Amino acid sequence: MTVPDIRTRWFRGVRAPAAKIRLVCFPHAGGAAGTFHDWATLTPPEIEVLSVQYPGRQDRLPEPCAATMDELADAITAALLDEPGDDLPLALFGHSMGSSVAYEVARRLEEVPGRTPVRLFVSGRTRPRLAQELAPRSAPTDADILNHVRRLDPQGAALYDHPALRAVIMKSLRADFGLLAAYRPTRLHRLRVPVTACGGDGDPACPVEDLAAWSDVTTQGLDVRVFEGNHFYLNPRKEELVGFITAQLL
Q1: Domain 5-129+186-249 belongs to what topology?
Q2: Active site residue 231
């Protein structure tokens, strides 16, 4: 029997009929659902993997990118609540920018009876900074963005050397970096959800010691797990990371 793909406006994945929990994955700035395209092959049948497809990239390229974190998190939360079915428990995993998006979605889901996530996984990013801690910044220039991306992912940044590809990719990167520059919550919402913070031991954007700050956003405890690698440790350490997530959920 062929298992149908999940392909909605906001989500990509493979339906898992025996699933007991749904893992929703949020990509980094400029990233897309394809970041997690093979995670379903690394998880047991009890876990169904959904990847979020932000607007303004890949098959959603013609759509405008989200302008604010509230706009993005509100839309994803509504789409999750509209997912047909079985009301499977939800766990959220976000990498880099996706960590902040996942936190905001978890906060919104807590307001819906019976839909509080069972766990929030954050990766490669410290907790959100409040307006009184760090003022909103001006959106970075394209040169600033490319310099930052090259520092975090020297191999992947070779894509930006191709003018045609750069023109396409910069649309989402420019929007996402602008969104993050303006994102400053007025307060931290302490989730009733356990949080696991993951990171690479050589990540220049999120030193290991910054992961502990996520304890400020949960009343249910924080676990920290460090992997060998840089900001995009989750690519070469994919099997190790997904195995770790699986062990925490089942």
Answers
A1: Rossmann fold (3.40.50)
A2: yes
